[in-house]
Amino acid sequence: MDILANVPVEQTEIGGATLMQQLADFRPPCFNVAHCIKGYIGFAVVRFEKDWIGFKDAYKSRHLGEVDWNQVDRHGKCIFCWLARDEDYNANDPVCRFLSDNGELKTMFGLQLERLED
Hints:
The protein has a single domain, classed as XS domain (Alpha-Beta Plaits). 39% of the residues lie in helices and 20% in strands. The chain has 6 helices and 4 strands, in the order βαββααβααα. The longest helix is centred in the middle third of the chain and has 10 residues. This is XS domain-containing protein.
């Protein structure tokens, strides 16, 4: 699963139609927004099939990955994305709770191996 950060609430409305349209080339089967008690927090979790690698590389090449998200004070209107990892599953936040309840943590190597086997 991938984590999207800084997702405008407007892109999550109507079942996320706007966001899903932007991600259509990568054919994600679904996405979910992360909420806390106060409501939407600007994060979404996207599930991808085997085409996630191109999606990850597209964001990384535009400097919109997790490292960039953590280094930038002002994020502007850009959506940042990264493959959910161990620290994301073990954090104490709404994204972690969603990942723990709905996902299986896989290594990059494991995902690439799955892709080769298909």
